[in-house]
Each structure stands twice: as C-alpha cells, then as structure tokens.
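Standup notes, protein team

Yesterday: finished cleaning the Defluviitalea raffinosedens set.
Today: DUF4179 domain-containing protein structure.
Blockers: none.

Input for DUF4179 domain-containing protein:
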Amino acid sequence: MSKNIDELLYEVLKEEEAPSLRLNRQILRKACLEGNNMNMRKVNRVAAAAIALSIAMVGTVTTYATYRYLHPSQIASQVSDNNALAKAFESEDAIEVNETQRSNGYEITLLGIVTGKGLEPYIPKEKIEKIQPKYTYAAFSIRKIDGSAIENRNFCIAPLIGGVPFIEGNAATLDVFSTCFVQDGILYELVQCDNLQIFADRGVWMSVVDFFGEERAAFQMDAATGAYSKVENYDGTSALFRLPLNVSKADKSAAEAYLDTIRKKAKDEAKEGRNGNTEFINEKDKIDDFLKTITAENIDQYFTRDENTVFTAKPDANNWIDFGSRYVKEEDMTYYGISGYLEYLIPDGEDFAITSISTSGGGDNSGTTLYIDVIFRNNDGSFTEAIYTSKKSLEELVK
C-alpha cells in the first residue's frame, strides 16, 4: 500500500453517516459555498473533517488595483466589527501586493496581506484585552473579465506552504475563515488563517480555486524544492500568488512545532475516531489485516468497480499525474479523478495500491459499505484509477 493504514483509516473513522468516496468528491466541491449570512456578508469556515481531498485562461498581470478596487482596510471595515483589522491594513506592517491573475473568465487580485494579534473580524469585547494568537489576513478582489456582475459566492482561497503536502497544510488544517461581499459588480473576499509569517523561509502561496479540495488538481508541489506551481490546462478557476513575506521574520522552531501539531492531531484522530466510536476502533487491526490481502488479482472477489470512476492517465516529465474528470449526462454529475505526484500515490515498482478509504451506512459495522480508491499500473506506462464498492458489509468482511 502507498499509505500507512492509520492515514487510510482516518477516512473510515468518521461520522456515522459518512458519504461514499464518489459522493464525497461532490461534497468537497461544494464545501466553500456553505456558510452563514451576516448582514449580506457570506462567511465560510472549512471544517477540519473535510480534510481528505472551460480550459482555464491563465495569465499574470499588474494592475492599478489601488484605483480600481477597494483598499484592504476598506474591505476589513465592511466585514469586521473590530476596527483593529482595518487599522492594521493601513499600518507599516501591512504588505500591499496588488498582483492580478486571470483564469477561467475571472480577474483575481491579491490586494494585500497583514499579520497580527487581536485582529479577528468578530472578537468578543471581553477578549480584546487578552493575549490573542497571531493570524494572517489576505484581501482579494475578483471580477468578471467581460465586465458582467459577478455572482455572490465564496471562492476557496487557502494557503499552501512550501514543502508541506496539501493533505497536511490546507484550508482545514490552517483554520481558514473567509468573509465576502459584492460591491459594484466586484466580489471582495477577506481570508483569515493561522500565522503564515513563521513559514516565510519555506515559501508561502495563496491559492484560489472554485471549491475546497480542488487544490490537489490545480497545483503541484515540486518534490525537490517544495515550491508550488499551477498545473497547465487545469479545467477550472486557478490562481496562485506567492506571498512576499519577510524571510527574516520566519520562525523555524515555531513552524516545525505547528506542523508537528497538525500531524499529531491527524494521527490521534485516526487512532481514536472523531466520535469516540470505540467499537469501530477495536476493529482497526481486522480492517488493516483485510486490506493487506486485497490485490489486483482478487479485488473483484470482494468489490464491485464503479465504471463512472474509472480514469486512465500517464504521468508528465515531473512524475505528476492528473486523472481528469468526466461528466455523466444521465446522472447530471461530474466525476473527478485524483492528481498528484506518482510516488505519493503508488510505490515505485508496485502494480497496485489503495490510495484512500471511505464508508457509508450505519453507525456500527452492520450494513456499513466500504469504498476503496485504487490505482493500477498498466504495461504501456499509464495508470488506471477507480473506486470499488464492497459486495458485503464491513462487518462481514472483517469478521
């Protein structure tokens, strides 16, 4: 297997009514659209439980954003009940970026960033005097290139940290909180996340995609340098801004401690289960043993392949593979394949690997369906990905 069983079981040990892998991909695409309305402002926080996963016209230009768009301090004033954030965007600690990229019919501009304490948009008065953690804030404007009014929606804007895989550092684990509003046909989005300044020496990027989870397909991390870049011909909205952070303010020890905390939390959740489902946890060893028996030769004995999820692709010169997508008209649904560096998906020299696991059904193992996402190595140098559904309940499989 290409992953440690603890990582795979993270997907299994979830809520009692967890969606299948097939449905989960659709849910992830909608995650950044969900939120509460606050005085006509949209607010979105990606839940930690969401960690899993037209040809774009892409270009980078510099615009006179200072004159065309609201200033970050003005954006902060509109979405925040705490004027400290607006003042911070006007301080010498703020960094005005004003970089614009075009993608998928949108003009996306990173206006500015600032990091500080006590700047939360919604902060209880009784907590203002208390020591607050440092957060990083980024202000964006997004408009339609053709001049038409933009829809009132959240894009998924999230940090990517150099050398840190998306599965570890993403909108969920970095505690991203976003607020947006539309003014004069332009969407403004203010993003809050954990302190990014500590990672300045690694390189930090702000990524923009339509929905959470699509970062895995839209961007790739160089295995040698850790640097992120956009995937050519990605089918969707894609913008990637490298943050001009002051390298001298990086904190290596704090960065390592932060990443250790993320990894420990994921490991603990995999071992303990999010809902304290101890009965399920006690089955971990049985599930582990069962999955180790699954091979390319016997998989059809225990699982049925979902033909809509079958994708075949070849890796590029950098060993990056993108399995693409497929629209099924009869179901009015788009199915998405995975993407990433091949060495992270299937071990070198192996012809078969289970890349992820999910379940759906009852709270106990009885009636619970097991789904596995697998990759096969083909003789012509290509690889095939597919999702398989268990023929028997999980209880029967691991008894």
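Follow-up from PR in the comments: Residues 5-16+275-398 form one domain.
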